[in-house]
Design a protein that fits this description.
70 residues, mainly alpha, 87% helix, elongated
């Protein structure tokens, strides 16, 4: 709950998604299951999308700072 009130929506999404993924990896490891190629591709797409969202947020903040300085 503290993440919802203390961080931006992008950061909250990253925290939630990462927590869920780590939980899945622990579960897969504990019970000896394997990820298929499709599942690894899906994971890559999710984290790739999150990376792009973070990158976009950082770029927007840099652009806003440049406008304020000008």
């Amino acid at each position: 709950f503290w993440a919802l009130t203390g961080f931006t929506p992008a950061i909250t999404t990253i925290i939630t998604t990462t927590r869920k993924f780590v939980t899945i990896l622990i579960s897969v490891n504990l019970y000896g299951h394997d990820f298929s190629i499709a599942q690894w591709c899906s994971v890559s797409l999710v984290f790739g999308g999150l990376y792009l969202a973070i990158w976009n947020t950082v770029q927007q903040r840099r652009d806003d700072e440049k406008v304020k300085q000008a």
